[in-house]
What we know:
The protein has helices at residues 3-16, 20-23, 25-38, 47-51, 60-63, 67-70, 154-158, 176-181, 212-219, 251-256, 309-312; strands at 90-92, 97-100, 117-118, 138-142, 150-153, 163-170, 186-187, 190-191, 202-211, 227-231, 246-250, 262-267, 270-271, 281-283, 298-302, 306-307, 332-333, 352-355, 380-381, 384-393, 399-406, 412-413, 415-417, 427-435, 438-448, 473-478. By secondary structure, the chain is an alpha+beta fold. It folds into 2 domains: 1-348, Alpha-Beta Complex (Sulfite Oxidase, Chain A, domain 2), CATH 3.90.420.10; 352-478, Immunoglobulin-like. Strands 5-4-15-10-11 form a 5-stranded mixed sheet. Strands 6, 9, 12, 13 and 14 form a 5-stranded antiparallel sheet that branches. A 5-stranded mixed sheet has the order 19-26-25-21-22, with no helix packed on it. It is globular and about 65 Å long. Residues 118, 171-173, 288-290 line the site of molybdenum atom (MO).
Amino acid sequence: MSDLERLRRSRADFDRSRESAVLTRRNFVSATVATAAAGVAGAIYPRQALAENSNRLLGSFRSGIPAATRHGALGLGRYRDELVKDLSQLTDLSFKSQGAQWWQLNTFITPIEQFFIRNTYATPLAAYDKRVDREHWRLKIHGNGIEREITLTYDDLIKMPSRSIVCTLECAGNGRTMFWEKQGMNSGDTKVKGNGWGLGAVGQAEWQYVPMSHILGLVGLKKSAKWALFWSGVDAKRAGEQSETGRPLPVGELTGRGDVIGLVYKMNGLDLPPDHGGPVRVLVPGWTGAASIKWLTEIKIAENNFWVPLSAFDHVFEGPTYKAPKPDPDDEFRFCKPKQIVGPMVTWLKPKSLITLPLQVTESHALPHNYPLKLAEKPRLPSGQRTITGFAWGPQYGVARVDYRIDSGPWQRATLRGPNMGRYTWVRFHFDWDAQPGDHVIETRTTDLAGQKQPDEDIPFNSGGYEFWGVPRMPVTVV
Ligand SMILES: Nc1nc2c(c(=O)[nH]1)N[C@H]1C(S)=C(S)[C@@H](COP(=O)(O)O)O[C@H]1N2
Ligand SMILES: [Mo]
């Protein structure tokens, strides 16, 4: 093994092994070898920082790793202090948001390195916060909607019956860029705010989980139970603080659609990585990613509803065509007040499609430094016979068909490439195109099994730019 290879591997080890790297000798040794290989003197892991961690930002742990190792001076990858995994295959929107480079996606299952990250705060690390350490992780399940309160350990959880599902996870903000680029909602009364994900806030993984049906059996769900609050509270501005991260889900979702909702502890066969919510997150297939709370610590099941930032004013539809829901008197409020409820929360996601070409961006002025196109630049394709590939998903009912058109010509059918495994799983598609030199526009449209199809018309304005599910407009230059 070359030094570089060894260094790469131990770096990957480090990413995967989360914080226990600090504590176990094996990893400490391999990390030391890595340091020596990189020619950097000194201990990699900041013991001092560990001691003084409590008031520092979560990122300080990784700040102690020599920059040469962290920042890819040896071509090892791209890292951010606030996140753990190698980010070199993601678009650098911010430390909180690392978009998938959807033009690079070519596998049915998205590898973890290509899987987008969307965080409110830095990824919490066990080195700073025992609540995300497998040894100390606890999940408290309580509330007046169940017969018996229980607290589970990680060990308890992984001994329970599990299933796996291949399903997409998509942020409701995916496609927001289209509100600007296609619909011009950039100013005045229709100013959409938020991250310019392009089409990169979606991915598909194989998730291993303990079905919530099993958990509900243990705690004895009461008939009167109405809402379940999935709560983290772990990811916060400062390590160890209690934060506002959690989201409610109607109990009907848990009991009404088979065993697809559950407590996830593996992603693509690996222990759930820290950036994706490890050790345990909930997965709510088909709903906006915001429902799939990471770093889960508490589930409260009750006869009342819960209001939290992620259901009152963030990830909600705020705009003239939407009406804010009214809370009931016995609802529980965490980190928000009744008057902060500004619109209905995003729930089911609609049918969508993407093709694997970067999007021309003219209206968004903060292009990520590693976006492959300059402002207003179009992707270029060589002329001749081209095969355009893409992905289609429609988790409410499943994908029935995908159509495409060039330069507003007639819609034509794209070829679906199996497997088409059901509503929660995306489908690959492709079509051939005899590309003639000049500027063109490619559009694609998913139709689901209930006949819902991505609309040509504008999607109504909502200030957070959630759920753009219109036909994506993809300009290209053929040379
Ligand atoms: N605790 C916690 N859970 C969270 C979030 C968060 O910031 N904190 N972000 C949510 C949002 S908005 C999305 S889209 C998904 C993103 O999951 P990923 O980062 O694994 O792709 O996680 C959700 N779960
Ligand atoms: Mo999201």
